[in-house]
Amino acid sequence: MAGEAQSDCLFCKIVAGEIPATVLRRTERTLAFRDIAPKAPTHVLVIPHLHYPNAAELAAAEPAVAGELLAEAGRVAEEAGLKDYRLIFNTGAGAGQTVFHAHVHLLGGKPMTENMV
Ligand code: AMP
Fold first, then answer.
1. Residue 64 parent element (H or E)
2. pTM surpassing 0.90?
3. Which residues are catalytic?
4. Nearest to 105, CA basis, from 82, 87, 93
5. Ligand 1 in reach of 37 Cβ (< 6 A)
6. pLDDT tens digits, residue range 13-66?
7. Which of 7, 33, 54, 70 is geometrically suited to a Cys-Cys bond with 21, CB 3.0 to 4.6 A?
8. Nearest Cα to 59, choosing from 74, 73, 70?
């Protein structure tokens, strides 16, 4: 069922504590942990405990939780002392998504002035 933990999902296993991660913040509904292959000095993933395959599906079903992801990303940035940072939601393999459990990438700590948009 939508929102339920999936036995074959890496991030559901991290939420459940079955796979280790460097957790920075945990709330009742979200988890923030360091990306295992950082692309910037600060590279943190913020995910909902609930399993949805991407950010749009999460937002459609659980808009408050989608909002909490963004608020939590802001808190992680603040705790890391970041004033400038980038938030990225990859959606679909063609856009670089490799883990199909909604997550936002928080990237910061280096200049990121090149833009796709
Ligand atoms: P995406 O490519 O947008 O689906 O992002 C998935 C991210 O998860 C990638 O940046 C990976 O480096 C990261 N990742 C994969 N496995 C782990 C893990 N065990 N712990 C932390 N991050 C991971």
1. helix 63-79
2. yes
3. 103
4. 87
5. yes
6. 999 999 999 999 999 999 999 999 999 999 999 999 999 999 999 999 999 999
7. 33
8. 70
Compute the distance between CA of residue 3 and CA of residue 64 in angstroms, rounded to an integer. Answer: 14
Which atom of ligand 1 sits closest to the CA of residue 88?
3
Residue 48 burial by CB count (10 A; 0-12/13-18/19+): exposed, middle or buried?
A: buried
Question: What tokens appear for 43 in the block?
Answer: 């590279």
pLDDT band per the 50, 70, 90 thresholds, residue 2: confident
**Contact (Cβ atoms closer than 8 angstroms) between residue 109 and residue 80:** yes
The answer to whether the CB of 50 falls within 8 A of the CB of 57 is no
3-state secondary structure of 47: strand
- Residue 85: pLDDT band (50, 70, 90) is very high
